[in-house]
Request: fold
Amino acid sequence: GNSVTQMEGPVTLSEEAFLTINCTYTATGYPSLFWYVQYPGEGLQLLLKATKADDKGSNKGFEATYRKETTSFHLEKGSVQVSDSAVYFCALRNQGGKLIFGQGTELSVKP
Amino acid sequence: DAGVIQSPRHEVTEMGQEVTLRCKPISGHDYLFWYRQTMMRGLELLIYFNNNVPIDDSGMPEDRFSAKMPNASFSTLKIQPSEPRDSAVYFCASSLGKAEGYTFGSGTRLTVV
Reply:
């Protein structure tokens, strides 16, 4: 079946540190991959996406590359800010159209 | 574009009462999804529609939950009777096509006392 596994949180970093949140997936076929962000008290917002192998999604300084050989879609940012504190969800969309989420990783950035 | 609109934002009700949550998807989107989020269980897909037709309702917890989409611009999720364990944030989301990401609403925070 289809599933997404993320590294467990919470992740605590100092401002300007480098961020990596690991995400691996299991899927049949060729899913689209996504990262969503949820700020406190809000809904989920699409952060970036990649629809085929070797695609790199990027937005607001965040990047993730669709790696078919390792079935991974790790989220990275070179220099985090306090305002990046949120919960990050990795997700895949299967061929039936359903979006399957990982469990979420809480990021806390300290000044 | 007003995004996905959910109402109410907050709902407090007594156990046994009927609760109706409402969602207006983005105009032109052909998929609509209802999710529930709790600390214990994370994000759970309850049901989704394609072109107003329910496609997969396997996530609906039990018969107390029902969802309808009478037209392309409106959907409801009803809980009758409500129970304290239904307390959660309920999100509606919509998308255009199968490959794109969803746009989520701001959610309805339901508290059943």
Q: What stands out?
A: The two ends of chain A are 41 Å apart (CA to CA). The mean pLDDT of chain A is 94. The first strand of chain A starts at residue 3 and ends at 6.
